[in-house]
Structures are given as structure tokens and as C-alpha cells.
Write a structure and sequence with these properties.
Blueprint lengths: L1 H14 L4 E5 L5 E4 L8 E5 L5 H74 L25
Antiparallel strand pairs: 1-2, 1-3
Helix pairs in contact: 1-2
């Protein structure tokens, strides 16, 4: 906004050396214009002289404000670039975290599956043989041995 005001001031200094006519109409209204007034209006020609020192000062202020605006714009663009890089890094970090969580969940599921398979294998290897309790077994007579005398 300051730049626009300053530019308007500079432009007004350039046109300040042009002729300016002050016209007062029949109704009493005052109008300033670059061409002479109509014959029915009261005309006053204003003698406006450009002040070279003021014009140079205004140009210098305009240039300083433009430089300041460019510097501010450069700083803002650099900040936006850094923010974009930070946002990208944050998104990348979040994606890596999600990937690590998914991998951890997969590992845990595989461990649970391995434990279940191991339990199943142990159950298959440790088959229990059920033996009936000993009942009265028939007693076998002791073998008879016969000795032969010689």
C-alpha cells in the first residue's frame, strides 16, 4: 500500500510541471483540469513548479520501499520453502511410523501363529497312551525244570 501511495506521489511530481486550470462553474463548484475551462466558467491558471529535491527524495523513498518489499517477499518465500520441507519431513516420518507399526503388528501376528503351531506340534508329539490299570493277571505257574541225572 505504501508503494502505491509513493508511486502516486512520484507520478504526481512528473505531471506537476503540466498546466493545471482551476475552473469555477456557475453553480460555484471548483474543478481542476488539464485543459482550459469553458468560456462560461471562471478560469484561473495555476503555476505549479516541480521541486526536483522533493521528487528525488520521493524516488529514493519509493526505491527503498520497493527494496524492503522485495526483501520481505524473499524472507516470506524462504519461510514458506522451509515450512514445505518441514511438512514433507513430518509426513515422511508419519508414514515411516505407520509402516513400522504395521510391520510390528505383522511380526506379532506371525509370533502368535508360530506359538500356536508349536503348541499344536507339542500336542501331537506328546500323545498320551492310556493304559488300563492292571487287573488280576493270571498267575503262570513256575516253569518246571527237570534235571537229568547222569
Amino acid at each position: 500500500m505504501k508503494v502505491l501511495i509513493l508511486m502516486a506521489m512520484v507520478l504526481s511530481f512528473h505531471s506537476a510541471s503540466a498546466e493545471v486550470f482551476k475552473c469555477i462553474g456557475k453553480d460555484g463548484k471548483t474543478v481542476y483540469q488539464a485543459k482550459p475551462c469553458q468560456s462560461s466558467d471562471k478560469t484561473v491558471q495555476l503555476d505549479i513548479q516541480a521541486n526536483e529535491a522533493q521528487e528525488a527524495a520521493a524516488k529514493a523513498r519509493l526505491e527503498a520501499l520497493q527494496n524492503e518489499q522485495e526483501a520481505t517477499k524473499a524472507v516470506r518465500q524462504e519461510a514458506e520453502r522451509r515450512d514445505a520441507v518441514l511438512k514433507n519431513q513430518t509426513e515422511s516420518t508419519n508414514a515411516l511410523k505407520q509402516s513400522a507399526i504395521a510391520q510390528q503388528q505383522q511380526v506379532e501376528a506371525e509370533q502368535r501363529q508360530a506359538a500356536a503351531l508349536e503348541r499344536q506340534a507339542q500336542q501331537n508329539n506328546n500323545r498320551v497312551l492310556i493304559v488300563a490299570p492292571p487287573s488280576a493277571l493270571p498267575v503262570m505257574p513256575a516253569p518246571v525244570t527237570t534235571e537229568i541225572l547222569r
